[in-house]
Specification:
This protein is an alpha+beta fold. It has 2 domains: 92 residues, no CATH class; 133 residues, GAF domain (Beta-Lactamase). Strands 2-1-5-4-3 form a 5-stranded mixed β-sheet, sandwiched between helices. Helix 5 links the parallel strand 1 and strand 2. Helix 4 runs antiparallel to helix 8. 21% of the residues are buried.
């Protein structure tokens, strides 16, 4: 009797052939698998040959081109975000420098409103400062409001948490911040001004409902609020 001993190489070839035959069988049973899962084409290597294989090559190239376009789109989006961040950083720097050079309280208010109206494309902007000084409120009612003003209750949550809020805002909030122009404000950003105590509110409004949305990031607005609050605190003490 003759005993045949198969080499490990021969066994490996036979196993690979069995796997290939099984794969071919599966592909025949699922002829649309590449149509249903085009992402597989990006992982496959298909040599160029005349005949039916050309369509597979073209489809693979199409998938790769689609992936490239998606990557390019994402890259452009990241570049836009980077440019916006750089622009906001420059704006924040300008505000900080100008606030350091502000001569008085009105100068602080002017610097802030002018810069933010231009930078954030806010058609309407105003600051309301809270004061217990009845004489000061009476002297400049456009800027100061009494601390016991009932309308401040509409802002109690954001003053408590010191977080800017973007969105439509309530009718009462818009009326308090923007007065006669409230009917023209379709979206707004409200920044609480807090430095130890509640100093006031900074309101930015736009006629465009999509300008200030609740989904917007508010880090820049928070940083501006901190800068403005610090500058206001200095001049309110004088």
């Amino acid at each position: 009797m003759t005993i045949q001993i198969e080499s490990s190489e021969q066994i490996t070839k036979e196993e690979r052939l069995a796997d290939e035959l099984q794969l071919i069988s599966l592909l025949k049973e699922h002829k649309n698998i590449l149509l249903d899962h085009p992402e597989l084409l990006a992982e496959m290597e298909i040599p160029h040959r005349a005949g039916a294989a050309t369509s597979l090559i073209e489809r693979q190239v199409g998938v790769l081109r689609g992936n490239l376009k998606a990557s390019e789109k994402r890259l452009h989006e990241l570049m836009d975000i980077a440019r916006d961040n750089e622009r906001l950083a420059k704006s924040r720097h300008r505000i900080a420098i100008n606030l350091l050079g502000a001569h008085d309280l009105l100068d602080v208010v002017s610097v802030v409103l002018d810069e933010l109206k231009n930078e954030l494309k806010a058609e309407y902007a105003d600051i309301k400062l809270i004061s217990d000084n009845a004489e000061l409120v009476a002297k400049n009612p456009a800027l100061f409001v009494a601390s016991d003003t009932q309308e401040l209750n509409h802002f109690s949550t954001m003053l408590k948490h010191k977080n800017p809020v973007c969105g439509r805002g309530s009718t009462e909030q818009s009326a308090f911040l923007f007065g006669d122009q409230a009917k023209n404000v379709a979206s707004a950003a409200v920044i609480p001004l807090v430095a130890g105590a509640d100093l006031g509110l900074l309101g930015l409004g736009a006629g465009d409902a999509s300008r200030f949305q609740s989904s917007m990031g508010t880090e820049f607005l928070s940083q501006i609020g901190e800068l403005v609050s610090a500058a206001l605190a200095v001049h309110l003490e004088q």
